[in-house]
Amino acid sequence: MNTFLNIIWFLAGGFLIVIFYLLGTLFLMLTIVGIPFGLQTFKLSGLALFPFGKQVVSKEHDPGCLSLVLNVLWLIIAGLEIALIHMILALVFALTLIGLPIAVQHIKLARLALTPFGYSFK
């Protein structure tokens, strides 16, 4: 079932989200300061490629002060905008019964887009 839903996700615009995440990764990797953020957008693109069947979990160890600082910077720079886009797409897909699973994945990505540091997915 996850494979079928991943195909539907990909055809319903998931590939566009991945492209935008990868473009963001390229722009963030241009500066040394942006490299940690670029790595996170690259991880988000991997999750956005095929999100069904993957779970977002907190890292087992305490992420520490650096994750908190990076999450605050991320939230100010890009996190709110990305999360807002995912929430708007979730609302659009939630209007139909068939789009509900896709809306749930957009909500999962929106939560991760707000604070990507300190989480991993498997």
Folded structure, characterized:
With 122 residues, the protein is mainly alpha-helical. It has one domain. The protein has helices at residues 2-28, 35-49, 64-94, 100-114; strands at 56-58, 119-121. It has a two-stranded antiparallel ribbon. The radius of gyration is 14 Å and the shape is globular.
Total of domains: 1
H-E string: HHEHHE
Helix vs. strand class: mainly alpha
Q: How much is the radius of gyration in Å?
A: 14 Å
Span of the ends, CA to CA: 17 Å
Task: Count every beta strand, where a strand is a DSSP E run of 2 or more residues.
Answer: 2
Describe the largest sheet.
2 strands, antiparallel
What percent of residues adopt helix (DSSP H or I)? over 70%
Estimate the global geometry from the Cα principal axes. globular
Q: Look at the structure and give the mean pLDDT.
A: 87
Counted by DSSP, the helix tally is 4
The largest beta-sheet arranges its strands as 1-2
Task: Name the assembly state.
Answer: single chain
Strand content: under 5%
Unreliable segments of 5+ consecutive residues: none
Q: What is the topology?
A:
Blueprint: H1 2-28, H2 35-49, E1 56-58, H3 64-94, H4 100-114, E2 119-121
Antiparallel strand pairs: 1-2
Brief rundown of the structure:
By secondary structure, this protein is mainly α. The protein has helices at residues 2-28, 35-49, 64-94, 100-114, and strands at residues 56-58, 119-121.
Task: Give short descriptive properties of this protein.
122 residues, mainly alpha, two-stranded antiparallel ribbon
